[in-house]
Amino acid sequence: MDEAAADPVKPPRKRRWPRWVAGIAVLGAVVYAGSIVWISVASAGHTSDAADAPDAPVVIVLGAQIKDGKPMAFLKGRLDAAVELVEAGKAKAVLVSGDANGGSGDEIAAMTNYLVEQGIDERRIVGDPYGLDTYDTCFRAIHTYGVTKALIVTQGYHVPRAVALCRDVGIDADGVNSDCGCATPTLIKNAAREWVLAKPKAALDMLWSRDAKVTSPSEDSVQVALSIP
């Protein structure tokens, strides 16, 4: 018997992933699914279109990109919904919350100017220049501006997360869907980001109950705006 026959070549072993890799994958799937359920449950029954929105003292408008000092499609849709709510008597004051030093420009100035152009009394508008993300907007709305009941306006795919975050920090919040008026690829990209990244991050924010990135002493500017006859 020759050597080859006596010692046959063994087939290569299949590579197996370490168990810890599979464990991480399963854990990630559980966390992701849990975040979707958590946000859905927290916002259930608290979203509507502007025409069906309940009354609240304040409407919060979340910032978004601007161009040449003017709101782009996403932000314009949110601001138009806020105007509709104020004109319908569903809210009395507007808290515009965004990044005053954003990459596209001063979101607060752009939002305020647009609302004034649409006929909203500037005295009823309060700007939060440090609403750097949705959680920070909600946290600062209650801790800096004393907002305890509000309508929060954004696009439909974003509304449940915004409502869940605001209610988590203690605001009796209802979400209002706004139009987009943007190109379909842009809408798809933002919706995908919402489901893949933003919702899980929001669940972690709620779990950790972190402070806003920028905290400020409490002030009464919203209460002053609400006192305007």
From TrEMBL:
InterPro entries reported in the protein's UniProt record: Cell_Envelope_Assoc (IPR051599), DUF218 (IPR003848)
Membrane-spanning ranges: 20-41
Domain of life according to the entry: Bacteria
Stretches assigned to the DUF218 domain: 58-174
Assigned GO CC terms: plasma membrane
Keywords, comma-separated and alphabetical: Membrane, Transmembrane, Transmembrane helix
UniProt key word Membrane: yes
Protein's recorded name: DUF218 domain-containing protein
Organism: Rhodococcus erythropolis (strain PR4 / NBRC 100887)
